[in-house]
Amino acid sequence: MRFPWSDLTGVVVQYRLMSFKHKTKQVWRIEIQFQGGRSAWLIPIRVANYEEVEAVVRELPCPHTEQMVGSV
Hints:
Shape: globular
Mean pLDDT: 91
């Protein structure tokens, strides 16, 4: 499946709360959203060069939001 960058609509960084006591949160996944409700997920533990990829995603020219998705 292909996602043209011209269809990019937003980036949502989804976090999970890792420690209630210390209020530590961790990126669970990054959802890159495209027109038509389509999306691509980046899951940090599955991306070998996550730091490099995350730096590129952070610079994408679209709205960026954060969302809490639960806890472990």
